[in-house]
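Take a specimen:
=====
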Amino acid sequence: MELISLGIIALVACVLGYFKWSDGRNNPVSPHTWQYCPWCRGNLVMGEIGGKHRKKCTLCKFVHWDNPRPVAVVLIPTTDGRIVLIKRLIPPRVGMFALPGGYVEPNELPEAGAVREAKEETGMDVVIDRLLFVTMPPNVNEILFFYLAKPTDALPTTGDGEAEAAIYARDAIPAEIAFSTHRQVIDQFLAAGK
């Protein structure tokens, strides 16, 4: 009986080590805070791998490379010069505005991710015109790919429940843009007069 109880306690400790709910959004903290190996449950320690300090397992050959997560974002202009924005209904930054976008799915190119995210968040089928900008936000391990869609006459609809989409005139862009990188791309687009 005591052996089973200790086993359950050890299992719970391992699970809690993998998933610490600390960001206030019901999302696990990023993998760089992992304490245990996802392969064998051994301890993860910092060590030099390839000339950089990385977390590695003390029991197996697992190395946490901590590669950035790709994010695809799309600026959708209308044929009359307005742009489509979403109002965020989920964290982070609920109630603020952003360009449609999200994480790239496994085995998906960022351009395809931008098209998918546009459909999910705005109900719009878009065609990508070109890549506008690639950046990494400060203190976030993500690579953002900003795309420009070809101008459209389509109207946005309610998306996937994570955002409300609407069209905004150039002089009516909300001040509450959720992310500084989105604001930068919007401002550059508007300044170019396209």
Remarks:
- Confidence is low (pLDDT under 50) at residues 1-29.
- The beta strands are 44-49, 52-57, 63-64, 69-75, 83-88, 97-98, 101-103, 128-135, 142-149, 163-168.
